[in-house]
Amino acid sequence: MNKPLVALLTALSLGGCAVEPTTLQEETTYFAEWVGEEPVVGRNRLSLVLGTEGRAYGNAGCNHWFATYSLDGTQIDFSDVGSTRMACDPLIMKQENDFLDTLSRVERWDISNTDQLRLWPAEGAPLRLWPAQE
For 127, how many CA atoms within 13 A lie in the half-sphere containing its CB? Predict the structure, then answer.
């Protein structure tokens, strides 16, 4: 069975619940809750903003990061990922390195039924982020 048909049948089986299309929002800040299998630690929130003209940026826990991204449907690719080079606590630096490594391997995105953005690498658990509350 193909994936779009499975998704449609799943939506219909929810007892008539309305299914609204979801999209990534440019210039919206998303805050990470999980980096792969690990919850985010520390006071500095890991963030992601998909800017205009294919630029992404945010805070990686210790340093500011930046990248280019391309988006095609549910496919997303981050390239030229870089960051500033300030040193922090080893635990925060490990988390930052894991975040940036996972970000550079992301291939697709989706939004969960609880409005959580998930960025999926080819293998492993996703980055899970929440949109900032206004």
Answer: 27
Q: What is the pTM of this model?
A: 0.81
Q: How many domains does the chain divide into? A: 1
**115 lies in which domain range?**
29-131
Please report whether residue 13 resides in a domain: no
Nearest to residue 22, comparing CAs of 132, 133, 134, 131?
131
Q: Identify the bridge partners of residue 111 per DSSP, sorted by sequence position.
A: 117
The span from the CA of 108 to the CA of 97, in Å, is 20
**Other beta carbons within 10 Å of 121:** 17
How do residues 88-120 score in pLDDT, each as one tens digit? 999 999 999 999 999 999 999 999 999 899 999
Instruction: Output the pLDDT for position 134.
Output: 67
DSSP per residue, 42-105: SSSPPEEEE-GGGEEEEE-SSSEEEEEEEEETTEEEEEEEEE------HHHHHHHHHHHHHHHH
19 φ/ψ angles, rounded to the nearest 5 degrees: -115, 115
The CATH number of whichever domain residue 80 belongs to comes to 2.40.128.270
- Using DSSP, state whether 28 is helix, strand or coil: coil
